[in-house]
Amino acid sequence: MSSIFYDLLAGLGFTHPFHPVLVHVPAGMSIGAVCFAFLALATGNRVYRVTAYQATVLAFIFALLAIPVGILDWQRFYGGAGIFEIRMKLVLASLYVFLLVTALGWGRWHLDSMAMPTLYVLSLFTVMGLGFFGGELVYRGFSPDAPEQYDTGRRIFESNCSGCHRRGENVIVSTMPLRNAPQLSDFNDFVTYIREPRMPDGSPGIMPRFTLEKLSDKEARQLYDYLYFAFLTPNRPLH
Ligand code: HEC
Prior knowledge:
Blueprint: H1 2-11, H2 19-22, H3 24-43, H4 47-78, H5 84-110, H6 115-139, H7 151-160, H8 187-195, H9 217-231
Helix pairs in contact: 3-4, 3-6, 4-5, 5-6, 7-9
Bound molecules: heme C.
């Protein structure tokens, strides 16, 4: 059954997980509900309470779509494996639906009660938790684990490089991966390169320059040590 769904998407040229496409609606609506609930409190205008409630209706409808599709994606792309982040997402998703249903049920008769903004805020925190674990799931693998001494370097990699060089690849010029790149064998070559990146023919490419203001020499050293460990194959620990 689910493979028909994915085959159909693939036929349209879409081979990625579908859950991320749907999650923005409940997330956005929960943000909206909190904003309008506070606007109602600030202005005393009841119409904003109604808007907050309506936003929650839409959050609920899209949560009912996003959750089953998330479970299908989990089966399809992660083989249904019991990954910590996914378990957390299942717990939070159940809590989210519970909070939305409570808000919708309670709000029918008690739209003006203070329980409503409270429920909206709790729903928003839950949806932020769902987003956080989704992000962990997608981005964490971008930077290989390394011993503690490389923590700072790894963080520098994650905030400056891993978007384009996830897992040591190169998402823009795939023939120039970071893994085993010639610049990694010597620190001075490395610093010279990241201060003024070049294509093999010497022309400037797409990679941004990492000037001293962006990355001090000390940070470059910490980054280098991490990259040397993580992406220069002979240095990887043998299992
Ligand atoms: C916006 C995307 C982007 C970011 C961010 C980025 N790079 Fe690059 N990187 C590239 C591209 C594209 C190339 C190919 C050469 C070029 O365009 O200048 C490259 C090439 C390289 C190379 C040479 C690889 C080879 O095989 O010759 C190294 C080393 C490198 N990057 C390191 C880094 C480091 C370290 C960081 C973070 C401090 C970083 N890059 C951040 C896109 C990026």
